[in-house]
Amino acid sequence: MCCESKRRFLLLYATQKGQAKAIAEEIWQQAGAHGLEADMHCMSEMDKYNLETEKDPVVIVISTTGTGDPPDTARKFVKKIQDKTLPPDHFAHLQYGLLGLGDSEYMFFCNGGRTVDRRLQELGAQHFYDTGLADDCVGLELVVDPWIDGLWLALKEALQLQKEKEGMNNDVDAVSSPVSTAPHAVHELKLRSEVQNSKLEDEGTGASDILSQKLDDINLVAPARDIEPSLVHSVPPVSQSALNIPALPPEYIEVEFQDTQGENPHLSSLISEGTTFEVPVTKAVQLTREDAIKTALLLELDTADTAFEYQPGDAFCVICPNNVSEVEELLHVLGLSEKGDDFVCVKVKQGTKKKGASRPQHIPERSTLKFILMWCLEIRAIPKKAFLRALVECTGDAGEKRRLQELCSRQGASDYTRFIRDSSVCLLDLLHAFPSCKPSLSLLIEHLPKLQARSYSVSSSNLYQPGRVRFVFNVVEFPAGPSRPVPRKGVCTGWLAELVAPLLHPSKNSLDTRGESSSTEKISIFPRPNNAFHLPADPSVPFIMVGPGTGISPFIGFLQHRQKLREQHTDWEFGETWLFFGCRHQDRDYLFKQLQCFLENGTLTHLKVCFSRDSSTAEVAPPKYVQDLLRLCAKEVARVLLKERGYFYVCGDKKHMADDVSDAIVDIISMEMEADKLEAMKILAKLREAKQYLQDVWS
C-alpha cells in the first residue's frame, strides 16, 4: 500500500536484460525525496494494475529487443492494447510519460517504446511529459538523467491538475495544463546545456546526496597541469567540483554459506526462453589462415537425437560460462578462493527497503559459489552508475572513494563515458584499479546482470544436412589498454575456441563433412527463430545476398537449401540469386572458397567478391567493399529489387557495413529511377516495411 501522505503515480517497466528495471527502480527510489510514491510493477504483472481504471499519472520505462520488438515482459501488454476493437477514446482518461531505451546502431531504434507510445496516443491517452528516447550507443544516461530530473515537476503539475479537476467536478476543459498533452505531439527529449542539476536525495537518510569535499580533506594531491585524466585520476573541474551522485541503492540480498553438499542446478533451469538442448560438437574447422587479422571458426553440432528445429536464416543461442581464470581471479580478490565449491543459499534480506525485493530469477536459491560466478552473473558487464555508487561504500582509501564518486556523478558524466563505458571496463578492471574496494558477494548479485546466452546465425540447411547445425564466428579479441591491464577474448567465442581446440583443422576451409573427429564435448543451445530473415516463400522470386566476413554465414544455409530444392523439384521455376561477399585478403580470410561450386551447379547465379586489403596493379583499382560492388551492379540490383520485386538480404556488422550498404541502395534507387535522395529513402523504407529489404546485423 502507498503512503497516504505522499501522492501516488503508477510506474511500469518492461525489460529484457534488466536496464529498464534498474532505471525504474532509480525513479522509485528518488520519488520519496520529492514527496511522491511510485507504485512500481513489471508490465507483465497485469493483475496488479489496470490502465482502464487508472486515475493517477503513469510513468513507463520500456526497452527494445531483437529487430525492434518490445521486450518479452511487454508482449501481453502490447497484444492487449493492439486489439483493433478498442475505441479511440479507450484511454482518454490516461496521462502518461514514457522513457524508451534503444540502440541507434540498429535500424528500429527504440521501437519497443515507440510502439507503445503510438498506440496509447491512438487510444486517446495524453502525455503529461515529453517522451524520452535514450540511446545505448552513446550512453543511456545522456537522456535518462535529465529526463528523470524533469519528471518530478511534470508529475507534480499533472497531479495538481488532477486534484483541481476533481475538486471542480465540472467541465474538465475549464483547466488547462501547462504541459503539452497534444495527442500526436511527441517530442523526443534532447540533452540541453541548460538542464538543471537536481540534488538526488538518499531515501534512507533524507539527506541530499551532494558531496562538497576539498582535496586536502581526502589526501589527494592536485595533479599537475599536464597530467591527463584516466580511470583512476581526475583533473579540474571534476576534481574540484561538488558532486551530485545517485542515491545509494538499498541492499536486498543475503548470502549464507552452507556446510551441506549437493548438486548444482541444470543449465536449462537458468533459461526462460524455451527448451534447451545439450548437443555434441562433431566438427571444428578454422576458416582463416594463421596470419589473418581475425580467426574465424566453423563448428558443427549433432542435433539428430533432439527435437531441435530451424530454418535457414534462423539463429540459436549458446549457453556459455564466464572465463574460468577470471572467476578464479574474482574469488581471489573477494577473499573467497577457498570457498568456491561451497554451497550458498541466496535469499532476500530481512527488513530491506527495496520495494518488492525478490531473489533475481537467474540466481538459483542454492548452488555453489563458483556456479553463480561461472554461469549466472555477467562479470564482464560494464558497471552501471548505481553499481559504482554502491562500490563507494566498500572502498577504504579516501582518494579511490572520491574517484568512484566522481565517476558516478553528474559532473563526472564524460569521465564515465570515456573511462568506463567506451573502454568496456568490467568489475575485475575496477577492482584492480581501486584495490581498497572490497565488495561483498551479495552486492555483486544485486548489481551484476544475468549472464546472457550468445546468439549465432545458422550456417546450414536441415534439408542439406539432416540432424546437423553449423555456425561460423570470429573469435573476439579485446586488447589490453590503459583501463584493461590484460587482453581478453570474447566470453562465448573464447570459450568455444578453447573447447574445440583439439578438433581444429587449421585452414582446411571446407564445406564437406569428411575428416570429422569424434568428440565428447557438448554445449547447451536453444532456438531463436527469426520471423522474417528467411528465403522467399515463392522460389521463383529472385534475391540478393550481401554478407562480408562472417556475415556470409546464413547465406551458406540459404544456398544449401536452394540446391536441395533444385535437386528435389526439377519442374519448379527458380529465381536468380546474387551474392556479394567481401573480406580483407583473398588468401587469408576468404571463408568459403567452395562458393564456386554453387555457381557451377546453378544454385548461385552471380557471385561478386572484393578484397579490401589486397594490393592491385590494375590501372583501375578494383572495388574494395561490398557497397562498391553494389554500385557497379546498379542496374541489375535495381531490376531485381524494384522491377522484379525481389528480396534483398544484408548480414554482418551494422556500424561499418550495413549503413554503407543502405546508403548505396538509396543512391542506386535515386539514379535508376531518376528520383531525388529523399524520394529514394522513402522507397527503401517501403521495401523494409514490405519485408523485401531484410537485415540481420550486429554492432
TrEMBL record:
Signal peptide: none annotated. Keywords: Amino-acid biosynthesis, Cytoplasm, FAD, Flavoprotein, FMN, Methionine biosynthesis, NADP, Oxidoreductase, Phosphoprotein, S-adenosyl-L-methionine. Residues 274-536 form the FAD-binding FR-type domain. It catalyses: 2 cob(II)alamin + A + 2 H2O + 2 H(+) = 2 aquacob(III)alamin + AH2. GO terms for molecular function: [methionine synthase] reductase (NADPH) activity; flavin adenine dinucleotide binding; FMN binding. GO terms for cellular component: cytosol. One of its GO terms (biological process) is homocysteine metabolic process. Its cofactor is FMN; FAD. Forms a multiprotein complex with MMACHC, MMADHC and MTR. This is Methionine synthase reductase. It comes from Pycnonotus jocosus (Red-whiskered bulbul). The gene is Mtrr.
